[in-house]
Amino acid sequence: MSARRSLPWLALPPVNPGDAGPLPEGRGDGTRHPQRRDFLKLLGTGGLLVAASAVGVRRLEASSGGFTVDHADDRAEPWEPHAYVRLDEDGTVTIICHRSEMGQGIRTTMPMIIADEMEADWSKCRVVQADGDEPKYGSQNTDGSTSIRDFLAKYREAGATVRALLEDAAAAEWGVPAAQVRARNGDVVHVTSGRTKAFGALVATARTVAMPSASRVRIKSPAERRWQGKRMPSIDLVPMTTGTAVYGADVSLPGMKVAVIARPPVWGGTVATVDDALARTVPGVERIVRIPASPMPGGYLPLGGVAVIAANTWAAMKGRDALRITWNDGPNASYNSTAYKATLQQAVRQPGAAGRTSGDVGRGLASAARRVSAEYYMPHLAHAQMEPLAAVARVANGKAEVWAPTQSPMDARKTIAQYLQLDVANVTVHVTLLGGGFGRKSKPDFVCEAAYLSREVGAPVRVQWTREDDLRHSYLHSPAAHRLEAGLDANGTVVAWRHRSAYPAIGATFAPNVAGAEPDELTNGASDLPFDIPNLQVEICPAVAHTRIGWFRSVNAIHHGFAIGSFVDELARAAGKDPAQFLLSLIGLDRRVDLSAAGLVKPASNYGANWTDHPLDSARARRVVELAIDKSGWRGPALPRGKGRGIAVHRSFLSYVAVVVEVEVLPDGTVLVPRATVAVDAGFVANPDRARAQMEGAVIMAMSNVLASEVTFANGRVVQSNFRDYGVARMRAAPRMVDVHLVDSEALPGGIGEPGVPPACGAIANAIFAATGIRVRELPVARQLAGWSTRREVGDAPGD
Predict the structure, then answer these.
(1) Residue 722 sits in which domain range?
(2) Does residue 761 contact residue 558 with C-beta atoms inside 8 Å?
(3) Torsion angle, alpha carbons of 385, 386, 389, 392, to 10
(4) Are 666 and 712 within one domain?
(5) Which residues, including other chains, have CB under 8 Å from residue 366's CB and lie 6 or more apart?
């Protein structure tokens, strides 16, 4: 399909009655937004736009003399045949996106599925972001790579239902059997006579027809689809690239104040004393407000602290700098990363609770011709999304209204209601675009801060986090230690495998006395191995949390993927075999296994799905490995010292991904990635362009995780403060080519956003070994490669 020139546009909720949208002239900090007239001139070079207004969505059509506005005031109320769909009598189709857009493309993918099944004219479709309302829309938590895998069938059914209603309406108007009419690109056609009626002209009749029977709601066959599974331009591309997209910090309300908060530097800490005399002298500072600390462990609630309320962001930041605060550091004041790493490593050297047991691993290891063991470690990681947290709130008369870049608007509603002791019905959450999220923006502590402060000062408030705030007060990814042992027979075949993990549980942030992850969490990439090993045991070991732990892109599959992918490479070297061929032999014969009946601890988690629909399928794992080998040039000429290739495969979020990475390690230890090849079997892929983009991003994020990223603690405090000391992959290191291959499939969809990171971590580490002889067992690797070229090759030196 060719890219069309007219793209649907964002329609945000109006910020106050009579206002033309959420972007008035200024935002109170000296920054001017474009005037609406300039805004329209900038983007209205042809095509179709939609703007929010007090009366709803207005259509703005380009003309030779400028813009003419077709006001909605005199129109009939739109027909709403489904929670996700509204249709106006002028033919405008409004599709409500109930999941949050943070670059993954859901605001394009979800509407195009519905429009495709509807047979809508895409140029007449509009996308409106849903407010938080799960009773109406279903789960809105944009986490876990679930939007398409949980809602594909529902999206298709929504579109097909509306199509059937319109066909029935046309049949009723023409007095013909419904079997003789077909919807086609915004019209309904009487196949026998050729008569047509536009969707809009059928609205009045469609309001009166009965809901279609199940037999009338026919989902399209693959051959009938116009956009599903095809190339489709992003509806947000223009506003994102022209700087007019609305993110959390872009929202401004009349009379709005800006707040910057000094939070306890140690998890569980509280304010002892505060001297705010100097802060009050900063021009623009208006008030200083204490935010009470939430009971530990706190969950989604704010950490507490001292807020500086000012007329603009700069004044609020300078005012915070001028505060003189002493803190009671609380129970986690002694938290130290070096000591905690040793604690985790000691934990995995002892037996843990079994998450999966098959065969007799003790006997298998004892009888093996050779035993190999290795330990791996990954530190805390920060989400480090490009957009620091921000939220705007207006609380008055017992009601709260907020605008926020949230991944979970319903969680935000409920938490605000809990925090302010309001009825949930009196809390409204409008969702802006997210400038990255990776799981951080599903936690609404920052939204609660804005709501609390708005209530306290009696005016709208925007809470603005800085980059330093993001790093030092976030929900961090858990550090993790792993110990793996394997037994090889005389032919180098793996006959026994034991894997022990230790990492603090996400649950520790939400409930007291949590000593570590539960065994069923090991299915996040450890217990659901696609390997054929007769004697296998996967165990979880205790780990107490000393800071807020939260889900992060790929969650625990990241460190599982790094450790397992690396260990398989070590085993291949120990057996004297090519790593790719060794990996294929480890996967073994094709089989489909319901792991809930094959050694998994019960209840056996499977990413929220059942094992009948999504069994462990070794054929899919084999297929992506073979595809990655074939497309990457793995069997090509050997690379010189300083260059190398690595391979890994991982099942996570119901998808199978294999990655081959080629690295070049410069004499100073800098790691470049000239090329990465990614093979993905995620079942049906609704939007291939966005799936490829997600895999490209996954490789770059894995590079950050492996090469540079690390959060450390001393005296309970985060040591890092900004990108100068929290490393992320830079442009120089980014891959020159990421070659993504999607397996064509009509199988039930798996995840896309998260499954690419875990195998990429392992593949990068293995490629570094191939290039330098230095085995990567601890992350980040940067320090380990300094001066590598002057050393003799280290080799694996695996334990026996």
Answers:
(1) 337-381+476-790
(2) yes
(3) -140
(4) yes
(5) none
Rounded CA separation 602/114 (Å): 37
Question: Element (H or E) spanning 770, and its range?
Answer: helix 757-772
Spatial distance between the Cα atoms of 130 and 100, rounded to a whole number of angstroms: 9
Number of domains in the chain: 3
Do 148 and 38 reside in the same domain of the chain?
yes
Which whole number is the average pLDDT over 146-174? 98
On whether the CB atoms of residues 716 and 329 are closer than 8 A, the answer is yes
Residue 469 lies in a domain: no
Within-domain flag for 2: no
Task: Verify that 197 and 255 share a domain, yes or no.
Answer: no
Beta-bridge partner residues of 671: 665
Q: Does residue 630 come out as left (phi exceeding 0), alpha (psi in the -120 to 50 range) or beta?
A: alpha
For 42-86, the pLDDT digits (tens) are: 333 322 222 322 222 222 222 222 222 233 345 579 999 999 999
State the average pLDDT over residues 144-169: 97
**Residue where one domain finishes, among candidates 422, 440, 464:** 464
How many angstroms separate the first and last alpha carbons of the chain?
Answer: 57
Query: Please, which pLDDT band fits residue 792 given cuts at 50, 70 and 90?
Result: low
How far from the centroid of its chain's Cα atoms is residue 654's Cα? Answer: 15
Q: Tens of pLDDT along 669-721? A: 999 999 999 999 999 999 999 999 999 999 999 999 999 999 999 999 999 99
Q: From CA 724, how far away is CA 468, in angstroms rounded?
A: 11
501 and 544 within one domain? yes
Rounded to whole angstroms, the Cα distance separating 117 from 95 reads 13
411 lies in the same domain as 454: yes
Q: Band the pLDDT of 522: cuts 50, 70, 90.
A: confident
Looking at residue 695, its amino acid is M
- How many C-beta atoms lie closer than 10 Å to residue 192's C-beta? 11
Residue 41, pLDDT score:
33
Tokens of 497: 């495998």
Q: What is the DSSP string of 400-438?
A: EEEEE--S-HHHHHHHHHHHHT--GGGEEEEE-B-S--T
Helices 757-772, 688-707: crossing angle, 10 deg rounding: 50
Q: What is the reported pLDDT for 35? A: 36
Query: Domain boundary residue among 438, 464, 490?
Result: 464
State the Cα–Cα distance between residues 337 and 329, nearest whole angstrom. Answer: 17
Kindly give the residue spans of alpha helices, DSSP state H, lying in 605-741. Answer: 618-632, 688-707
CATH number of the domain where residue 606 is located: 3.30.365.10
Query: Does residue 743 contact residue 623 with C-beta atoms inside 8 Å?
Result: yes
Placement of tokens 């789960």 in the chain:
139
Which class for 37: exposed (0-12), middle (13-18), buried (19 or more C-beta within 10 A)?
exposed
One domain, residues 80 and 216: yes
Residue 795 has a pLDDT of 57
Which tokens hold the place of 213? 């029977």
Is the pLDDT assigned to residue 269 strictly greater than 90? yes
State phi, psi for 370 to the nearest 5 degrees.
-150, 140
Q: Would 639 be classed as within a structural domain?
A: yes
- Both 555 and 665 in one domain: the answer is yes
The rounded distance, in Å, linking the Cα atoms of 657 and 752 is 10
- Kindly tell me if the per-residue pLDDT of 136 is higher than 90: yes
Query: Quick check: is 294 in a domain?
Result: yes
3-state secondary structure of 159: helix
